Amino acid sequence: MEIIQNLMSVQDFAELMSKNVAFGTNKIYGLVKEPGFPSIKIGGRYYILVDKVNDWLEEKSQFVKGRARDRKGSTTAVEE
């Protein structure tokens, strides 16, 4: 039953995140539909794979670190 312990509903995850960052339920629903975000859909409900979120954030931060947005919103590579 360890897998069940690592699942969190969107509502519970949004409540947890709201203590640290300004993420509401709508933002979390947007994230669960994003390719690569650690979530699963069971029946009609989405669940977050809590133990994988930090890995996903680290992966996203590495991508963002190597890219920058110009004023028009397009991304370009950034040399370090």
Q: Which class best fits the helix and strand makeup?
A: alpha+beta
Q: Helix proportion of residues, in percent? A: 40-55%
What distance lies between the first and last C-alpha atoms, to the nearest angstrom?
A: 45 Å
Number of DSSP helical runs:
4
Shape: globular
Indicate how many domains the architecture comprises: 1
Question: How many β-strand runs?
Answer: 5
| Main sheet: strand order | 1-3-2
**SSE pattern:** HEHHEEHEE
The value of Rg in angstroms is 15 Å
Low-confidence stretches: none
- Tell me the β content: 15-25%
For the sheet with most strands, the description reads: 3 strands, antiparallel
Estimate the mean pLDDT confidence. Answer: 79
What report would you give on this structure?
The N and C termini lie far apart (45 Å). The mean pLDDT is 79. The protein is globular and about 35 Å long. It has one domain. It has four helices and five strands; from the N terminus they run H-E-H-H-E-E-H-E-E. Helix 2 packs across helix 3. The strands form two sheets. It has a three-stranded antiparallel beta sheet with strand order 1-3-2. The chain has a two-stranded antiparallel sheet with strand order 4-5. Helices cover 46% and strands 22% of the residues. Strand 4 and strand 5 form a beta hairpin. The longest helix has 16 residues. It has 80 residues and is α+β, with helices and mostly antiparallel strands.
